[in-house]
């Protein structure tokens, strides 16, 4: 009784083990000539994350036997940790005979390092690929990474693939026939030519628009298009193949520079096309802030950590704000924004698809269409943006035509109004003429009466004229007497600065006095002795008509290089002269409201001149102070 139960129990355990093994067994991808392409997914791939990055093939065999490999949980494998090496194991079966040559191809052209271990009898052949290797080292000179599949092995061949990259990558592995690869590559490069050709055509079109319209928005759009083209070339591997095949290091950051340029000039173009400065001033300020933020982030990537270029999700900010700006001004009634919104809808859709794939939240297997969806959306965006530019030009032309028509209508109305006014004025002139003719006869009679009155007034006017001449002479004599009295009063020792200023009230009066005093005996150039002169740049200065030497009115006087107001300097000279130099610098400072040190320095200079000209000013009277002004010691 015990033995049958034991056998039954063992049978159940064996059945469960076999069932569990069948569940966990890795699916083998069979080569079939009827299916020329197959994308690996789900249970067809098992993987192991080597966090040390140092395990070799033997260590990976041991890890597999220890059950450390796991099934791929996503449709497309993704590397999540930049410091780890990811090992993938696939099985390719040969249950059916094949007449084709097969290759294993990797889609993502940004993977830094791919090492393929292909089974060869009892060992493995190692093939190194990746964007960190020179392009010339590739067997197939194609943008994708491809390796030949052995055709003379057993029914099930196990391949190990080691992936390591400085950023998160999608490990899209495709089994293809060589004929399918060649046809696909030719079609792909053809569409690349169409894509980049369209970018050049759009760029040339906008360049011609820039030359014709002279609007900076076209220049922004040209740079944006070229930046998009460069970014797509970096992402597709075309730039590595044709522009820098021997400089793999450029692959690490060239796309970041292109993406930054595209973002900045896309926002600048949106600003100009949507006329945000007028249509949405607050939103325009927000966009300026986004530009500043994006520039700061770019500089941080360049100077601090280039790995930050991998966070392409940052581009969602300028893209979304531009899309929102287009929607906002469209709702406000700005018609040129309609095609802009449609174009950016395509671009936003492509960006979302690409972001979902990059973040591994895309629920479907990644196909060629998904992988190149952003490129298709770029084309649609450029197409509709061109429509938007043309629509804006058309609307501007329509508005211009309407404005011209309004001007023509207004001119016609003005002409009709002018004719009406002319007719009205002619009628008024005729009526006025009749009135004038009637009044002219009355005026003629009155003129006769006025003639006799005028004769009488003429006689009275002559008498008044004689009286005015006599009064004018009396006024001149009285004025001269007043000036003499005032001058004599001012020249008294006890006169204050307010009374002194009545004769020399301002800088202009002082300069005129200096000019008359300095050149009272005539002008002679100090450089060439020429006696002819013209007015200089400064007030009352004189410029030699021969050599061009200009002499200011204060040059070669005691006032040269003096910084105090000139009328106060005059008054200081007058006080020093009238007190015979006995007034103190403290008193001068109190009277003139000038620092004592300045008064002391200037009064010392005046005393020196007084000492030198003691004999000359001894009997000069009230005019003696003016003889101190001209500084003969500075004559040339």
Automatic annotation (TrEMBL):
Source organism phylogeny: Bacteria, Pseudomonadati, Bacteroidota, Sphingobacteriia, Sphingobacteriales
- Source organism per entry reads Mucilaginibacter gossypiicola
Is-annotated flag, keyword Lipid metabolism? no
N-terminal signal peptide? 1-25
The protein's name = 7TMR-DISM extracellular 2
**What keywords does the record list, in alphabetical order?**
Coiled coil, Membrane, Signal, Transmembrane, Transmembrane helix
The 7TM-DISM receptor extracellular domain covers which part of the protein?
43-175, 188-392
Locate the coiled-coil region(s) and give their ranges.
411-474
| Record flagged with keyword Transmembrane | yes
Locate the transmembrane regions by residue number. Answer: 189-211, 218-243, 255-274, 286-307, 313-331, 343-365, 371-390
Looking up InterPro entries in the UniProt record yields: 7TMR_DISM_rcpt_extracell_dom1, 7TMR_DISM_rcpt_extracell_dom2
């Amino acid at each position: 009784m015990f033995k049958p139960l034991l056998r039954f129990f063992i049978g159940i355990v064996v059945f469960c083990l076999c069932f569990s093994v069948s569940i966990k067994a890795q699916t083998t991808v069979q080569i079939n000539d009827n299916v020329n392409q197959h994308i690996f997914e789900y249970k067809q791939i098992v993987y192991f994350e080597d966090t040390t990055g140092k395990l070799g093939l033997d260590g990976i065999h041991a890890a597999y036997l220890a059950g450390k490999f796991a099934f791929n949980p996503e449709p497309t494998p993704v590397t999540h940790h930049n410091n780890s090496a990811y090992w993938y194991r696939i099985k390719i079966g040969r249950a059916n005979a094949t007449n084709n040559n097969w290759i294993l191809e990797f889609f993502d052209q940004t993977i830094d390092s791919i090492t393929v271990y292909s089974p060869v009898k009892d060992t493995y052949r190692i093939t190194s690929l990746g964007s960190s290797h020179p392009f010339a080292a590739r067997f197939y000179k194609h943008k994708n990474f491809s390796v030949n599949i052995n055709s003379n092995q057993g029914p099930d061949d196990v391949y190990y693939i080691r992936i390591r990259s400085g950023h998160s990558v999608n490990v899209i592995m495709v089994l293809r026939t060589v004929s399918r690869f060649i046809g696909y590559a030719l079609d792909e490069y053809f569409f690349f030519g169409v894509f980049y050709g369209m970018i050049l055509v759009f760029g040339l079109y906008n360049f011609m628009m820039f030359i014709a319209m002279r609007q900076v928005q076209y220049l922004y759009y040209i740079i944006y298009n070229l930046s998009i083209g460069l970014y797509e070339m970096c992402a597709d591997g075309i730039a590595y193949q044709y522009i820098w095949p021997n400089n793999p290091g450029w692959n690490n950051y060239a796309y970041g520079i292109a993406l930054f340029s595209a973002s900045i000039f896309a926002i600048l173009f949106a600003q100009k096309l949507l006329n945000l400065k007028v249509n949405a001033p607050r939103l325009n300020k927000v966009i300026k802030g986004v530009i500043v933020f994006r520039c700061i982030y770019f500089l941080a990537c360049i100077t601090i950590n280039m790995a930050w270029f991998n966070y392409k999700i940052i581009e969602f900010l300028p893209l979304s704000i531009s899309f929102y700006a287009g929607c906002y001004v469209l709702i406000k009634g700005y018609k040129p924004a309609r095609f802009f919104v449609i174009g950016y809808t395509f671009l936003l859709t492509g960006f979302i698809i690409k972001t979902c794939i990059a973040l591994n939240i895309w629920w479907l297997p990644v196909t060629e269409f998904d992988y190149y969806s952003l490129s298709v959306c770029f084309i649609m965006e450029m197409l509709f943006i061109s429509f938007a530019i043309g629509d804006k030009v058309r609307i501007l032309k329509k508005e211009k035509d309407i404005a011209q028509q309004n001007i023509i209508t207004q001119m016609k109305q003005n002409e009709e109004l002018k004719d009406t006014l002319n007719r009205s004025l002619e009628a008024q002139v005729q009526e006025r003429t009749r009135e004038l003719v009637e009044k002219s006869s009355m005026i003629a009679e009155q003129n006769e009466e006025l003639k006799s009155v005028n004769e009488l007034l003429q006689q009275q006017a002559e008498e008044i004229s004689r009286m005015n001449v006599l009064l004018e002479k009396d006024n001149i004599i009285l004025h001269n007497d007043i000036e003499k009295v005032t001058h004599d009063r001012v020249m008294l020792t006890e006169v204050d600065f307010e009374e002194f200023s009545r004769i020399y009230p301002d800088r202009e009066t002082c300069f005129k006095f200096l000019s008359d005093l300095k050149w009272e005996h005539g002008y002679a150039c100090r450089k060439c002795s020429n006696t002819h002169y013209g007015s200089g740049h400064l007030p009352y200065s004189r410029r030699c008509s021969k050599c061009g030497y200009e002499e200011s009115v204060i040059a070669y006087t005691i006032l040269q290089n003096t910084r105090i107001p000139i009328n106060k300097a005059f008054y200081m000279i007058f006080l020093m002269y009238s007190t015979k130099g006995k007034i103190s610098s403290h008193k001068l400072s109190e009277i003139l409201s000038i620092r004592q040190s300045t008064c002391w320095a200037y009064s010392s200079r005046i005393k020196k001149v007084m000492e030198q000209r003691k004999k000359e000013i001894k009997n000069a009277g009230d005019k003696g102070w003016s003889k101190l002004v001209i500084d003969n010691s500075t004559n040339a």
